[in-house]
Specification:
- With 713 residues, this protein is an alpha/beta fold.
- It has four domains: 3-134, no CATH class; 173-276, Orthogonal Bundle (Muramoyl-pentapeptide Carboxypeptidase, domain 1); 288-483, Glycosidases (TIM Barrel, Alpha-Beta Barrel); 502-712, no CATH class.
- Helices cover 41% and strands 16% of the residues.
- The protein contains 23 helices and 17 strands.
- It has helices at 3-16, 33-47, 57-63, 75-88, 101-113, 125-131, 145-162, 173-190, 202-206, 220-232, 246-259, 269-276, 297-305, 325-334, 354-370, 389-410, 423-431, 502-518, 574-587, 599-606, 662-676, 684-699, 702-712; strands spanning 65-66, 123-124, 288-290, 310-314, 337-342, 378-382, 416-421, 437-440, 459-469, 476-483, 535-539, 544-551, 562-567, 570-571, 609-618, 621-635, 638-650.
- The strands form three sheets. Strands 3-4-5-6-7-8-9-10 form an eight-stranded mixed beta barrel. It has a seven-stranded antiparallel beta sheet with strand order 11-12-17-16-15-13-14. Strands 1-2 form a two-stranded antiparallel ribbon.
- β4 (310-314), α14 (325-334) and β5 (337-342) form a beta-alpha-beta unit.
- α1 (3-16) packs antiparallel against α4 (75-88), α2 (33-47) runs antiparallel to α4 (75-88) and α8 runs antiparallel to α10.
- The protein is elongated.
- It starts with a helix and ends with a helix.
- The relative contact order is 0.05.
């Protein structure tokens, strides 16, 4: 409790309690909205304006300017000023209705905290508007010092048009609106007809200058505003200096790449728009779209002609909204991919309960399977309203936790849960690891969850506008979506069989992984829990750490040191086979428990595919990876491709053989570095010797190292 806040509450209740337009407040000494509204009501009563507890422009205009010389007849207004200062944390040295030096100093202190230079001690309407609310002018525990610097700079440079905005270091709507007003103020110097209203429109976007690394002092004010916008979007420019230097160019490029813009480092109108408003430049055409209208052949052709590659469709809803197998055939024939959206109303917080999460998780899986979505498809659960922080914490996060848990229990096809919703909802769910991908409803620019919020880092789709394309029977209204590199869609031929489940694929990959590991002569294999696309530790080390990773990505590695083809279980490389026999003969007299695998046995396991060798250094450790690519492995009536990578990491400094001379050991390391740098002249014999050395040096006698190292160097 604050004694002076309590005295303020007592005074305002006593003075205005008999007025029917006044609402009494608790006298508890705690500053809150109620106390500030009471002071505003008191001010409105004194000024003879409408009494509603909201200090708007009309009330502010009536205040005039209060100074120590003109307040004799306005004693109660000075009381209100003093009470507001106490509630705000500033000490006017008395609650007596006298505009004293203490009042002047308190006013100056607040103006200084707000960023004004050479502040006076007068209280005008703009000051009272900033004073009589819960805004803070000191750094909040949740605030960012650099954001506070932006807020103070805006107050310093543009107070005539923005008033005094909070300086708490929290980026929210008031700061964003002030930034837009500041930008419009600069534009007005060149375009006199510019309206400074803090609302982002087409004129505001089109009047933004093109800034490049050559932009100089003429654009300094603009560059400041660009740097502020970059920072609040998560891109630092090494301070705010008004110069379009290397750091600013780099920040612009990085932002552009993230936001799906052309990453040239020049700030044009699309870059300005994407920094300042959630939907960015609405004229951008995305490769994706979504619609409620079922696609006919004519409408699908329209989308293809319009450059669309992905179409979002609903997998739940009424007959005029929901995707069907017949429509999937139309989409497949047109060459489009489908982005599935799960929206069972989901337009209010009441839709997000634990009971509904359990029911809808099962329903979503059934619908995805019935519509033949392939393994690994990302689908988007909708949050189609402006959820508050409390809504997110108390309803949406618990809903998604339950949804994810229940879905995991039925998900045999490795479907991935995404979310469609405002930026902040998407970011919170990503942070809580409840979703793998975000479909952002950015064209709802008025949502508090979009205003002043960063794009989630896992955004795949950015919905920015509604457009109508095509003519006649092919005409269709769609939501225009920007697709990031994370966007994926499903290509579904409803006439074809769905193929094996994720579980079936995983079982085949796991069995192959175990066979390959056994070929590495490990004395005993731990009980491993494999997961596709996740690296699993087999041997923790030291002296050597062994890892394995299963993946459905079979793209050839162009940087591999050596690659060997396998056909019908045979190694199709005479040089490799010859070298393999030579090395095997040299180590045959030593322990068989080496990490030199039985490559011929692995080739028989793979049947058809490739072996890719990659060798290098990482944190001063030798890293050897062998990637085994398996082609056309049969599962039921289907064939699949997959890859298994075995990685060995050895600390060649800590575990150097004492019997090997420093000269030989240095040449050995030099050869490895040559491979690491991808220098030419590396032969398969050198690659295989390194493979053999790892096992022999660790598991055989010291003499093995003496035999093999000279051979290598």
């Amino acid at each position: 409790m604050d004694t002076m806040v309590k005295k303020t509450q007592e005074w305002v209740n006593k003075t205005y309690g008999g007025n029917a337009k006044y609402v009494k407040i608790a006298e508890d000494g705690i500053t809150g909205n109620g106390t500030m509204k009471a002071l505003v009501r008191a001010l409105q009563i004194e000024l003879g304006v409408a009494v509603d507890g909201a200090l708007g422009d009309q009330t502010a205009a009536k205040v005039g300017t209060l100074t120590s010389k003109n307040t004799a007849a306005k004693k109660n207004i000075v009381y209100i000023l003093q009470g507001g200062l106490y509630c705000k944390g500033y000490n006017p040295n008395g609650l007596d209705g006298v505009y004293s030096t203490g009042v002047e100093n308190a006013v100056k202190k607040m103006r200084t905290d707000a960023g004004l230079t050479n502040p006076n001690g007068n209280a005008d309407g703009a000051f009272m508007k900033a004073l009589l609310n819960m805004d803070a002018y000191v750094l909040s525990s949740r605030g960012d010092a650099e954001v506070r610097k932006i807020q103070r700079n805006l107050n310093r440079d543009y107070t005539a048009v923005i008033g005094l905005i909070p300086c708490d270091g929290i980026f929210a709507k008031p700061t964003l609106k002030a930034m837009i007003k500041a930008l419009q103020t600069e534009q007005k110097k060149t375009y006199p007809g510019t309206v400074v209203d803090g609302i982002w429109g087409t004129n505001t976007m089109n009047h933004c200058p093109l800034l490049t690394s050559g932009s100089g002092a003429t654009y300094k004010r603009y560059i400041y505003l660009l740097q502020y916008a970059l920072y609040v979007n998560g891109y630092k420019t090494n301070g705010f200096d008004g110069a379009y230097g290397t750091a600013t160019v780099s920040a612009v490029k990085n932002f552009q790449a993230f936001a799906g813009l052309s990453a040239d480092g020049n700030a044009g109108k699309s870059t300005w728009a994407s920094l300042y408003v959630s939907y960015g430049d609405k004229s951008r055409k995305g490769k994706a779209c979504d619609c409620m209208t079922p696609l006919t052949t004519a409408k699908a052709k329209t989308l293809v002609a319009d450059g669309r590659k992905y179409v979002g469709r609903y997998i739940v809803g009424g007959a005029n909204k929901c995707l069907t197998l017949a429509e999937e055939q139309v989409i497949y024939d047109a060459g489009l991919k489908i982005i599935p959206i799960y929206q069972k109303s989901h337009n209010a917080v009441s839709c997000f309960t634990i009971a509904k999460a359990e029911e809808e998780a099962k329903d979503a899986y059934t619908r995805l399977v019935n519509l033949k979505f392939p393994n690994g498809t990302v689908f988007y659960v909708s949050v189609d309203f402006d959820a508050s922080d409390a809504n997110i914490t108390n309803a949406i996060v618990p809903y998604f936790k339950k949804f994810k848990s229940v879905f995991a229990g039925v998900n045999k096809r490795n479907y991935k849960i995404g979310v469609y919703g405002p930026r902040y909802v998407c970011s919170v769910l990503e942070k809580n690891q409840l979703t793998s991908s975000s479909f952002v409803c950015d064209m709802s620019s008025g949502f508090s969850g979009n205003i002043g919020r960063k794009l989630p880092s896992n955004w795949a789709l950015d919905q920015i506008s509604t457009v109508t394309v095509g003519t006649g029977a092919g005409q269709i209204q769609i939501d225009n979506n920007i697709a990031s590199s994370r966007c994926s869609g499903a290509s579904i031929n409803p006439k074809a069989a769905m193929g094996p489940t994720y579980e079936d694929i995983k079982n085949v990959c796991d069995a192959t992984s175990r066979e390959i590991l056994q070929s590495y002569h490990l004395s005993s294999l731990p009980t491993l829990d494999f997961n596709l696309e996740e690296e699993v530790e087999v041997v923790p080390g030291p002296p050597v750490e062994v890892r394995i990773k299963e993946s459905m990505d079979t793209t050839l590695n162009k940087s591999a040191a050596y690659s060997v083809s396998i056909t019908n279980g045979n190694i199709m490389d005479p040089e490799f086979s010859s070298s393999l026999e030579d090395i095997s003969a040299k180590i045959s007299g030593y322990s068989p428990d080496t990490l030199m695998p039985n490559y011929k046995g692995i080739a028989m396991t793979i049947e058809n595919g490739k072996m890719e060798f990659e060798i290098g250094m990482e944190n001063n450790k030798l890293v050897l990876s062998v990637r085994y690519i398996v082609y056309q492995k049969k599962i039921g009536d289907s064939n699949i491709d997959f890859a298994i990578t075995v990685t060995q990491i050895w600390d060649i400094n800590t575990y150097k053989l004492s019997e090997v001379s420093e000269d030989v050991w240095s040449k050995f390391k030099e050869k490895i570095n040559r491979i690491d740098k991808k220098e030419l002249g590396i032969t398969i014999i050198e690659v295989l010797v390194i493979v053999a050395l790892i096992g022999v040096i660790l598991y055989a006698t010291g003499g093995a190292g003496v035999i093999l190292l000279p051979l290598f160097v």
